[in-house]
Here is the input.
Amino acid sequence: MKLEAKNITFGYKKSKTILNDVNLTITESERVALSAPSGFGKTTFCQILAGYEKPWSGQILLDGKPLPKKGYSPVQMIWQHPERAVDPAIRIGDTLAQCPDLDPAVIKGLGIEKDWYQRFPGELSGGEIQRFCIAAALGKETRFLIADEISTMLDLITQSQIWHFLLSETKKRRIGMAFVSHSSDLTDRIATKIVAMEKE
Amino acid sequence: MNDVRTIPVLQTAKKSRFSLRKKTILSLCFTASFLIIITIVGVLCSDTAVTTDFTQKNFAPSIEHLFGTDWLGRDMLARTLRGLSISIFIGLGASTVSAVIALILGTMAATLGNKVDTVITWLVDLLMGIPHLLLLILISFALGKGTFGVIVAVALSHWPGLTRVLRGEILQIKEEDYVKIAQKMGQSRCKIAIKHIFPHIFPQFIVGLILLFPHAILHEASITFLGFGLPPEQPGIGNILSESMSYLSMGMWWLAVFPGIALLITVILFDSVGSNLRKLIDPFSAQD
Here is the structure.
């Protein structure tokens, strides 16, 4: 399987183009690191890859076909700010329940404890919420994972625990990955390919 | 720099016996039950309110008649209570209809695209631009006055404010990350609306509904006072006040003062119920 971004052009305002004719291909065994300084549109590109934003021109293709509009998306994104990625008004267990066919091994591997399920996001730390977000993005149908600075709010031990798990899980299930990280150690350790975004 | 000390940390904060939340709940229960009692007593004394007794004309307030009696010997306390209960019923009907209109139009404006949004926003602006009282009189008069006319008039003129609030709220939630993520998790639009959007606008809706009450009651009283509302045989507060006008110059101050104060207190109580309820169910202040 491969995920292709073909000739992506995008901007939030008509007057300012952020991404101009970007091409990228990720195959199922690849872990691509996107690297660029702040404000270069890494997050925007991630959102386009996962189908959250519609590009002005160009296409995102999964095995030559556009991303499905309905159902659990095979391209899942994990967001940078876990607090904003979960509904503050419902229990975190209900948020996780939105993901169909969740493997119990995923929950165990991420170190999620049972009594967290009954809590509201306000009663959990950012790192704890992020584990739920990662779990929800790792449903059975996930083929590609887009990780946008998912570990910036975590302490080093938790960071390594989560990345170890993600690494073994994506290898085992042959999930392709694109990730953004500002830590060069992490990038060197995880990535099979590094894509640097530069000014034209 | 190896001098590391550990400090014991309190894992659970001590709770005071009367938290602010408990106080709010208490005062909410108190005001709400007071209003319910007024309504029930008002319904029970609907006969006393219209019984005339010419041996007891024009009595000033006393132990027997706390609010005095009027020129036909009717007990003003009974009339005031009856008037309040009528006002509360009309307020209930009108503000519920109004809030439902606001919910429907607000949801439509936020979800059905630009054209619908423009039309509804224009309508809201239009209705907000016309003075309330004028609109109330026009609608009530066109419907032949009476209870029905008053309810429809109040209901049709009070929805714009809440519509605007709900529309804004829904538009904001629609753009939240977690709503977009839920879509990618394969949740249907309907499920998202029920699970993610409705719980967020529900507090606004309920509080908006209750805060419409005082408006509705005051406006009901004012158009009745001006003669475009309830029929004169109904002891609405507006009627009581307008009838008392001709007797004020004779020194019968109690005819206007007590019903007026009672109306004021009712309105204030409803207002406090609304703001207390907001404190309780608004996620941003619920933990106080």
The domain at 20-50+64-281 of chain B is CATH 1.10.3720.10 (MetI-like fold). The first helix of chain B runs from residue 20 to 44.
